[in-house]
Known about the structure:
By secondary structure, the protein is an alpha+beta fold. It has 2 domains: about 20-170, Regulatory protein AraC (Jelly Rolls, Sandwich); about 175-275, Arc Repressor Mutant, subunit A, CATH 1.10.10.60. The protein is built from 11 helices and 10 strands. The strands form 2 sheets. Strands 1, 3, 6, 8, 9 and 10 form a 6-stranded antiparallel β-sheet that branches. Strands 2-7-4-5 form a 4-stranded antiparallel β-sheet.
Amino acid sequence: xxxxxxxxxxxxxxxxxxxxAICPIDVSLYLPPINWxxxxxxxxxxxxxxxxxxxxxxxxxxxxxxxLVRAGQLAYLPKGKKRMYTHASATFTMYEMxxxxxxxGVDLMALLGLRDEDYVVDIPDRAEMSHxxxxxxxxxxxxxxxxxxxxxxxxxxxxxxxxxxxxRAKSSDAQFFKPVLRYLSKTIDRTVTTEELAGLLYMQPTxxxxxxxxxxxxxxxxxxxxxxxxxxxxxxxxxxxxxxQVAKKIGMDDASYFARFFKKHCHCTPSEYRNxxxxxx
Length: 281
């Protein structure tokens, strides 16, 4: 249930933000042995949401733009945009927090210019961010008015840290590789060479691979395979396409190879995955 507890702050430095209303809605912790299903179909978010990843990786798609969210990164999922997310690692631990925030009745995240692009940021002080989410989770469990006041204060700090990180991220390598990520998202139905990707940024392939791996924790082809896997998960759950057609949609003409590829990464066959996660129509 949504808790409407407001933290009001007068800011002398600007007239743009005079009264801030912070409203925590829900916070959850996903950790092993819980099997985090994610959402392979996708939906329009009704609340603003933060993901704080403690361990592992997940793929996040916001309005079809792909992000790899790794441990130590904070992801913002704006309300009103389509979101889809799937695991990208065998083990995964994450906090998820839904909220709303306004300033004088106007959407705070919009006022701060945070509703578009660059939704995933690196957080320098991981211990502090983990503490903020942990305390919010404890307060949510207690359902106490005073504790919710602290949760509101913690949430405002999370928003502040996210906004600061967005400013720092403008010159990051993640920004540098955005054309490559967009290109990969549009070419999932075929094979793409590393030389082709390096050419998008006018880089030598060897240096491109090294810099890409330093930024995303895996080589570009491994990243591309994870994107293909995420698209396959979506097609298996959201459609009734035969398996050979799902394989072709991600650039694999051999259905047997696709089945082996899928089982290697998901530890189950495509049919088993479809039966486990497909929602009844």
